[in-house]
Every structure is written in structure tokens, then in C-alpha cells.
């Protein structure tokens, strides 16, 4: 971290803010309720718990099986922004250095994940889960963001970031900050979580801690189930250094020939399909690499040789995809070829056990062609994504209390055991869904299943960005096609880390008779849309679903998302027009109740932010409240700065990265930024405006990033029902309240956790409040 620079001073009468990396002290006006955080004598926040930044919550240990929507925080945003041309509300130029660095902000997000793992009030197995999430997040960050930055530096196309940092400065920031966080992560496991689990009877042990009986049992397991799939690879003049696959665990083994006295190097890959932790005896688990590396077991692999030493290492490679769509006649085939090439991306990080022999480390660095800055020595065990399996142990007392979502009250059949008639309910009213508090299976899934089975339904049109391996959504679409309905499915085969799965679903849907399209060249289709056309008498009625999350029944139980089910014909007409654009040829850019990227979404939001300034000047109610995963787009951020300068109150609830500097005098003193993390992954996007006393609220799929606004098909829908608008406004107010547990962003880019009030009492948890509200509705709330 660079030393703090002097206070920003006017230059030619204009305020210049220091770059985000410097942590320069920026004057921040005191908030009404003050700060609950403690600060040291240098003015830096002392965190009671660590903070981390990434978004891959609740994903399994392997990338191939990911269930996360990674794109909102991870994907590349390379567009340049001419900040010198931006002006404030009074026509004066906005100050340079007003944007926080996005990579630093991402790391801060993953730090917040780590804080949940370090928090002693978090249930123990949930702490283990957050440790695994942190590790998984960081893997993806290096595979995509760091790899992309290195590639751009190497090719000479990298430019200064919007935060004012040069590419090399950003890379060094990442190396230094990630090193600190990984050390904290390892210490949390070694010194806190593992001993805490042991106190509860769950022992995560190393080989030397096993009893003789346990070692004997594992030797039998090794001989029968592990040894047959191991392949030791020698390195000598006849055997070149082997290819090391990304994220694989490996043993570097040094053996000696007792006859010649020569030493030899060999690599043994830990099979990725075997369990990460093996049960040595009830509730006692040992890492699989410890079992492989046991002296007697290595001797089995290298009979007749003397085992000198062994060390664990793990490599991270560039796992991003590059497909030139304009030149690819068949996008599906081009992507399949690129998936094969992805396995051989260049290295971006080498994790090694801190006890590794310097000579072995030197050999790895040389052969893998990686710099010393990219080497991360850590205490074992490496790769704590394996804790996902430990977190799944059946110990409910060590987890968050179980919550089972119920059917939305507007869809529930009070006096009938039969499934609700979704269409009949939607003819009565719109239904605003809030997952996981409202069941996905009895709402969105039931909507599509009923449509597939209904003989009066003529057509179903659907976008699929990510879905589960045994998707009932896909099954319903197949059933509909096989019963003769017209079914159009837009499958986004470029959804990061789900490309292979989506290719599989695309082929399966095609084989069933669905019309499968892959969207528009050069654009990812990220919007969450479903349209059902039904014959009712002499009329065709369109039923629609517009959501903020994927059609993924499993993640719908883990991700917080919103969705609107409606029979409103304006929305139905908009979806018809948009689907026609996606499947055919259309230049439509305006819609009735939708804002659609890349043409109208950014401009539509900025114009509404600007309109709030006019309302404020006229003395009418005016505010801007936004809930997103990421707030990076400079044009939107500058619009928020102008609104703040004009006196409009601006609230930003962001889960992940945020480029806004809140609380800067003369720029953003009317902007507050909060972040909420917890048992569910906050994933919904909401945009609310005071609109002079007639509130306007939108929900949809778009985050505030160049990629979402310029290179994706995204859609927001305007929520019209006053009760729904009021409910969404209450949600935003609750998330931003100083009495709600959250993290607060300061002007220096530091996040401060606010979890207790000035008397030390816990603040309200917004997710637990929503859970309890649903339980009260069903009469099952805790007293």
C-alpha cells in the first residue's frame, strides 16, 4: 500500500481527488447517526473481522459444476471513459480521481466474505462455507480478472484505469492485497475454524495426527481406490516437465536412486474427482493429499526408490474464453473448440506450502514460467474450497436455522390441496416474487410447468443463462415442444464457466423440437424473461415473467432475487418484440414498460436520475435508490455525483464492487453506499426514483457495468402496482437503514462493518427479518 498523500487541494479552482490506491484522506461530512466503527490514530478503520471481495457464494468445489452467476463482478470491463469531459450539475468539470479502483473494490468485497468467516457469531459450519466461498472467489478472480489484466499488459493494449492507476500499479495492488487476504484466510482456518470444529467433535486433521488404526484403514482405502488412478510423472531428459492443469492439487516429489545416487523429480496429481477430505473414522477427516503423501503410500508409487521429500503446490491458469463471433460461422462449434483451448491458458498464480524447499520452488517457477510475485507460500492444506464438503455435514446445530420457502400468498390455494392455477391468479393481479423467501418451485417453475401441460397454451418463449443439471425448467420446455407447442429458447452458451453445460442443454432442447437460438452476434443475452401465449376464447393472452435471477431452481434457494409475474398486455407486447429481436431481425429500440440494453437502458436510467434533480429544484419529492451487484459504469456514477451536488439524496446498496466515492464534500456528500452479505447471496437489481411524489420503480437483470450496458441484452421492467412499489421501497429503506447490519463505504474506499449499535447490541439482519416475516405469515415464527 502506498503512503497516504496530502489532502486534496484545489487546482485552478477545481478539486482533484487522489487516486484510489493512495487512501488519501478525503473530507467526509459526518452522517446523522455517526459512525459505529473504531478508528486508529492514523485514521484507518480497525476491522473487528476481515473483509473479502468476490461473488461466487455457494458454488461447488469445481469450476465445471459452478452454480454461481459470476459475471456481475468478475467479467472484463475494458471500455475507456473520458472523465475529463464529465461535468457537474453546475457545468463545472467533475474532479479527477473520483472513481474508486474496481479491482481493489472487488478484493474488498471478498474481504467482507472473509469477515463472515471470521465472525464468531456466524455458525461454525457456515464459517467453513464462507472460507470455501472466499477461496473459490479468489480462484475465479485470478482466472479472469488477473489473467485478463496480464494479457492486456503483455499485448500493449492496457490503459490507465478510471481510478487513475496504471495497469502495472493495479497488478501490484492485486498481488500485495491478495497476499494479505490469503494469509488471513489461512490463519482463520488454522487458528479459529478448525479448532472450533474440533471442539464440536468435527476433527480436520493431518496424517501425523491419525491413530495407527486410522492410518491402517486409510492404507487399505489407498490401495483399493486411490492408487489405481494415480499417475506419477517423472522429469528427466526423456520426460519433459508435465503439463499442470489449472486448480489441480499436485505433489512435487524428490526421490533418490539408491544404486546411482542420483536424485529425480516427479509430479503426482491429486485426482480431482475423489473426495477432498477422507473420513479416517467417524467425524475425523484428513485431506486426500495427506493420504497420498504418506511415506508408505509414496513408496508404493516409487518402489525401489528412496523418498527424499515432497511438497504440495497448486497452479491457477487463465480460464477466460475468447471467441471472435464476427468470424465464427458456427458459434457453437467455435465455443467448443475454445473450451478445449482454455485448459492450456498461461499461469497466473502458484500456491505452494510455505515449507517447500527453495530448490523445488525455483524449479517450479522456472518450468511454469511464472514470476516470483505470483508465488503464494501458505500453510497447508492448500485449496480450502474443499471445505464445501465439510460445510454440508449433517450438523444442523452448527448451521443457520433451516428455512423452507412457502408459496407466495397470491398464488397459494388456502382450502385446496391442488396446485394453484397460475394463469387465473395472474388474471386477478400481478405477483411480485421475492426469492428465496417465496418458493421458486411453486411460482416460476409452476408457471412454466402449467404452461407446458395446458392445451390452451400455444407458445412459450424463454431465455436461459444458467440452469441446473437436472433442470425442471428444461424438462417443461421439452414437454411443451413434444406436445406440439411452439417453443423458442434462447440459450446463452457464453455464460462464463457454464458454457459446456449450456451447450449440452442447447443440443437436448433442439433434439426435442424446440427452436433454439443463441442471441445476437457480439452480445450476451443476460435478461431473465419468459413469455407464455395462451388462447382464451377469441383472444390471445400473454403471460410474462421478468426476473433478476436465473431460471435455476437450486440457486433460487440460495440467491436473493426478484421477479414479476404478470398478464399485463403492455409487458407481454414488449417481451414479444424483444424475443422477435433476439430470434430474427429487428431494430426496435424503445419499449412500453421495458428498458433494454444496449440501446436504452443506460440512457433511460441517467435521464431519470437527471429528472430527480429537476424535481428537487422545484421542491418536489426527489431521491435515487439503487440496489445492484456492481456499480462501476462511469456515466451512471457521474450522474449520481451530479444529483448529489444538486442536493438529491442518493442511496446505493451494492453487493460487490463499487466505483463511487461517497461522502466527498462538494461532490458526493448526499450519497450513501451500503453492502449486505449473509446466508443468501444478494442478487436482485432495483432502481427507485422519487419522481416528484409519484414513485417509479424498476427491477431487472442489469448491473451498472460497461459489459452489462453495452455488450449484453439486459431488461428492466417498470413495476406499476402501488403495493409492489411500496414493498420494494421498504426493502431499499431497510437495507440502507443505520439500524440494519451492513458494511458502509467511505470516501477513501475502505469498507467498515456495522453490526452492533453504540450500546453493543446486534443490529437487525435484513435477511433474518425477511425470513421471520414469512414465518409469521405462516404462523411459524420464532418467539
UniProtKB/TrEMBL annotation:
Residues the entry annotates as binding Mg(2+): 466, 496
Protein known as: Polyphosphate kinase
The organism's place on the tree of life at top rank: Bacteria
SUPFAM superfamilies membership: Phospholipase D/nuclease (SSF56024), PHP14-like (SSF143724), PPK N-terminal domain-like (SSF140356)
EC number: 2.7.4.1
UniProt source species: Streptomyces atriruber
Keywords, in A-Z order: ATP-binding, Kinase, Magnesium, Metal-binding, Nucleotide-binding, Phosphoprotein, Transferase
Catalytic site: 526
